[in-house]
Amino acid sequence: MKRSHVLALLGLVNVAIMASVAVAQIPSRPVLLQDAATATGVGTTAHVSGYAMVGVQVVVPTGASPVFSVQFEESLNGTHFSAVLCHPHNGTALTSNAAAAGIWRCNVSGATLFRARVASYTGPGSVSAFGLMLAGGTLHAASLRSPVEVASR
Question: pTM of the full predicted structure?
């Protein structure tokens, strides 16, 4: 192998290692996106620059039966938001909204902002949405215990 090829290969390996280190240095971060909402509203908009994924857990209190729609949205400029398709944890088809309690994984690579907007709401009870921003890797339902515990304190 030529010396120039070896140096080029070493350069690629170095770039891959540095990229891995950069991703590993961004800690996951929980965020309360909706706090016991009982009406339509934007909630908290999360800054997701540098994150690849947001896990979202929509929670309805035990015994409550509201009818609602939570829209998953992202933005680059903070003014214009667009629907983002998310994977439900139960493996059904991609969706940009939630109408029941559950967990979703949303790809936010390249986005600046993310929100879980309550687009419609009627009935007793409330709806909350907890988020966990992740730099990379996979998200499992158990990973979302932290933001729920953090938000409930």
Answer: 0.74
Question: Mind listing the pLDDT tens digit for each residue in 79-125?
Answer: 999 999 999 998 889 999 999 999 999 999 999 999 999 999 999 99
- 39, 121 in Cβ contact below 8 A? yes
Residue 144: enclosing H or E segment and its boundaries? none
β-strand pairing of 67-75 with 81-83: antiparallel
DSSP result, 10-74: HHHHHHHHHHHHHHHTS--EEEEEEEEE-S-B--PPEE-TT-SEEEEEEE--TT---EEEEEEEE
Average pLDDT, rounded, for the chain: 81
Phi-psi region of 123 (alpha: psi -120 to 50; beta: other; left: phi over 0): left
